[in-house]
Amino acid sequence: MPYIANTPVQIEEMLKTLGFSSPEELFSNLPSSIKINGKVSIPSGLSEAEVRKVIKAIAKKNKPLSEFNSFLGAGVYYHYLPSALKYLFSRPEFYTAYTPYQPECSQGSLQAIFEYQTYICLLTGMDITNASFYDGASAVAEAILMSLRIGKKKKILVSRTMHPEYQQTIKTYLRRFGFLIREIPSDNQGFLDLDILKQELDDKVVSLSIQSPNFFGLIEDIEEISKLLRERGILFIQVTNPVSLALLKEPSKLGVDIVCGDGQPLGGTLSLGGPGFGFLATKKDFLRQLPGRIVGKTKDREGKDGFCLTLQTREQHIRREKATSNICSNHSLNTIGAAIYLSLLGKEGLKKVALYSLNLTRYLHRRMKEIDAIKVPFSERFFNEFVWRIDNADRIIKKLHKKNIIAGFALKRFYPEFRNHILSCCTEIKTKEEIDVFIRVLKGIISA
């Protein structure tokens, strides 16, 4: 970020307008653990070039992911990115493009977004999808708001096996609306507890939101859950990993009403956890309740194919009280990247990505079960990640890290009852040799 030379007078004026007395007060809501106490220890009197060298030396203390044998997933996944991908979506007509308000000047961007929408509909089996959201968390929150507009009831059910950060976002979105959010826990196999779900299904419920594959990597019984909801006229929202849909049956064929999630696995990088984009697909019946915007295909006066924004229910385009969402932007560049990624891989290529991810994860799972000190507590019906348990998990994780191995995600961060449980992931980019190294080093640490 470039240096912005605000004068003391300008800083004071800005703080006064915001109602703060100092810059420290402005950032007082940030946790102390991520703030620097005191001044940065950089000698005074250095030139810009010298300061740059000091900062680079500090930055080198961090290790890039490429230096680790990583088994970390938990919502952001390390996939192979075709070399052509970066070149194509970095082209200036995509990279610097703004909202395509003028179709006559934006046919390339509009067509790319249209192709993205087509891919999402093919993957999910749904009729329509919009031009994306910020991320998976905002997508599921908007899907729930959408269900509340359709069903006009006050109670929503959310599975505790959904990504915990998605759950936090849902609560943030709905905090001021007065709706009742009920959390459905997991059973002893890591799935949504169907017995408790049945107890919660009453006339006040408008929708159920679950994730499958869920946060523990498990594939939920979508068809069975769908039957329970259909009997009571309750809307069904599924959060999913889009790569898994290359192997699993389309949600539309299982009775799901709204499908959403994060598109980071479709050509996204791992830069600070992304960036990704949120996707949301649904039935044509709910078209007018779909937030965001849709790119449509039409014919011009000469009979040629043309693309334009055909539905724009954002407050930026229509009167605020009639808008379905106040999201006035999206991650168009990332959605175009997803369209390019899917076009480069094709149907069979994406299927291979999913299949290799599944097979490598099953191999890791089998090798884990060879170790007596490790327990695999949940079902084996998983996609590309699973949970395992070992005593003193924190110590094991730290020792592996010193060996340049990232074991996975420690579940205790979000699930206190799973204090010694680790969520490990494999994608197609992992190799059998890397898995064998992980197991060999893990065995050595356990026996030491």
Characteristic key phrases:
single chain, 448 residues, alpha/beta, Aspartate Aminotransferase, domain 1, Aspartate Aminotransferase, domain 2, seven-stranded mixed beta sheet, three-stranded antiparallel beta sheet, 14 strands, 15% strand
Structural Rg: 24 Å
| SSE series | HHHEHHHEHEHEHEHEEEEEHEHEEEH
First-to-last CA distance: 46 Å
CATH topology of the largest domain: Aspartate Aminotransferase, domain 2
CATH architecture term of the largest domain: 3-Layer(aba) Sandwich
Average pLDDT confidence is 91
- Give the count of helical stretches: 13
Structural class: alpha/beta
Biggest sheet descriptor: 7 strands, mixed
**Total number of strands:** 14
- Approximately how much helix is present in the residues? 25-40%
Report the β-strand fraction as a percent range.
5-15%
| Uncertain spans | none
Text of the CATH class of the largest domain: Alpha Beta
- The best one-word shape is globular
CATH homologous superfamily (4th level) name of the largest domain:
Type I PLP-dependent aspartate aminotransferase-like (Major domain)
Number of domains: 2
